[in-house]
């Protein structure tokens, strides 16, 4: 497993009673679908369901302490600010970071763009001498991989176009795992930033980050880790990872939509020029110039998603109370079952590693002779909800010579019964569409 992900999970498992208690916290799982079918939700990689404590936290904020934060002197403003900053502490602690190193964003996409535009602003001369460590020059290199979500690829393409930098990338092997052995070749003395997923949202493969980060730091490059698929499912500690930036989103870790986080080492936040400007992120404003607040407020212009941040903090506490080693072990068992069930169906091919080691419970697959969208529709008719398409990872799909896959992704509330229901329905797809099993 990659650096920063605890591996000693063998002693942790979830009993049937514990799973029932967890599932009872998620009201959507109990709602019937048309025709009285039960919900078999296997699309947590796209967005997770929300437990009652998270739903209650957001509503409670609006009912009891709704006010602007960091602005008013009245009681409600004080209570709102306390709740807002306590949430920051909870989310930061969840990844082993101090709260003053955590910046609220609208999601991981916004967090990545924040870093990319900070580089761009530094290149344009903004931020003074301290920001020059982020400035890019023609011929400097930005490194990604073929496995990246578009949100960790397109912003870097744009940064390269604005600055004259060159985009380079790690390839993936036949199983869809990032070719870490290419680190010495891909990361060079011209590399300035390496942006890498910790877990693929298509293959579920965990990236061995340690050699990539070590190589990047050896040449003086910074490293951004996309933790969208790792932070909700594995014990992640930024100190152990050793990267410079980590991004993740609330809606993939039992929290609300519209809120995410950027973690960065304090010295980097202090040197980075701001990206979005306006109220709340300033110190002194004159008609011709402005000085900016220290981080993290420097990067939080305007009215923040306060209620969502509070609920995000509750989601982090909820997962923390379950114990991330227990979560990781239970979801490892789900991954094994997904691979067994999907891999055991004739005419169905798994895209990505079929070995359950160093992966999470995200499994993409193709059904011979049936388009992924038709597969998804058939499964939906049987109450099994999966994701279909390219999952915002077109280069990776192109690498495999396919346009789309179906993807089943689990979370802490997923049951083995859910996976068996997927297998029952998936096993009938080809016959339903009249595809000869020997074609």
Automatic annotation (TrEMBL):
Entry GO MF terms: cysteine desulfurase activity; pyridoxal phosphate binding
One Pfam match: Aminotran_5
Domain of life the protein comes from: Bacteria
Keyword RNA-binding attributed: no
Keyword Transcription regulation: no
Domain Aminotransferase class V: 40-422
UniProt xrefs under SUPFAM superfamilies: PLP-dependent transferases
EC number: 2.8.1.7
Annotated Gene3D superfamilies: Aspartate Aminotransferase, domain 1, Type I PLP-dependent aspartate aminotransferase-like (Major domain)
GO biological process: cysteine metabolic process
UniProt keyword annotations, A-Z: Pyridoxal phosphate, Transferase
Xref: InterPro entries: Aminotrans_V_dom, Cys_dSase_SufS, PyrdxlP-dep_Trfase, PyrdxlP-dep_Trfase_major, PyrdxlP-dep_Trfase_small
Family to which this protein belongs: Belongs to the class-V pyridoxal-phosphate-dependent aminotransferase family. Csd subfamily.
Protein name according to UniProt: cysteine desulfurase
């Amino acid at each position: 497993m990659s650096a920063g992900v605890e591996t000693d999970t063998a002693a942790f498992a979830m009993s049937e009673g514990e799973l029932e208690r967890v599932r009872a916290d998620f009201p959507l799982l109990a709602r019937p679908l048309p025709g009285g079918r039960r919900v078999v939700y296997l699309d947590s990689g796209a967005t997770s369901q929300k437990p009652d404590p998270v739903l209650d936290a957001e509503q409670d904020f609006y009912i009891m302490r709704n006010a602007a934060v960091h602005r008013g002197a009245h009681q409600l403003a004080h209570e709102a600010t306390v709740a807002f900053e306590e949430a920051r502490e909870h989310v930061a602690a969840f990844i082993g970071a101090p709260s003053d190193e955590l910046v609220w964003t609208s999601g991981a996409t916004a967090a990545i763009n924040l870093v990319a535009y900070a580089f761009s602003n530094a290149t344009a001369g903004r931020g003074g001498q301290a920001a020059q460590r982020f400035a890019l020059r023609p011929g400097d290199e930005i490194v990604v991989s073929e496995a990246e979500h578009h949100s960790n690829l397109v912003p870097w393409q744009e940064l390269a176009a604005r600055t004259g930098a060159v985009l380079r990338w790690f390839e993936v092997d036949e199983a869809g795992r990032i070719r870490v052995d290419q680190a010495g070749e891909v990361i060079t003395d011209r590399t300035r930033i390496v942006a890498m997923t910790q877990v693929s949202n298509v293959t579920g493969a965990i990236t061995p980050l340690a050699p990539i980060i070590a190589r990047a730091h050896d040449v003086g490059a910074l490293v951004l880790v996309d933790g969208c698929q790792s932070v909700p499912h594995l014990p992640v500690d930024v100190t152990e990872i050793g990267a410079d930036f980590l991004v993740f989103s609330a809606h993939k870790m039992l929290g609300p939509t519209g809120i995410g986080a950027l973690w960065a080492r304090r010295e980097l936040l202090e040197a980075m020029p701001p990206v979005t400007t306006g109220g709340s992120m300033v110190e002194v404003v004159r008609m011709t110039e402005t000085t900016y607040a220290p981080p993290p407020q420097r990067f939080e212009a305007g009215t923040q998603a306060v209620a969502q941040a509070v609920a995000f903090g509750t989601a982090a506490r909820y997962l923390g109370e379950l114990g991330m080693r227990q979560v990781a072990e239970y979801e490892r068992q789900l991954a094994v079952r997904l691979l067994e069930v999907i891999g055991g169906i004739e005419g169905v091919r798994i895209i990505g590693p079929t070995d359950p080691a160093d992966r999470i419970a995200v499994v993409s697959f193709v059904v011979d002779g049936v388009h992924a969208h038709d597969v998804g529709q058939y499964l939906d008719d049987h109450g099994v909800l999966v994701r279909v398409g390219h999952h915002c990872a077109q280069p990776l799909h192109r690498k495999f010579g396919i346009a789309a896959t179906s993807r089943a992704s689990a979370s802490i509330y997923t049951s083995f019964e859910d996976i068996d229901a997927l297998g029952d329905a998936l096993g009938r797809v080809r016959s339903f569409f009249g595809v000869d099993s020997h074609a």
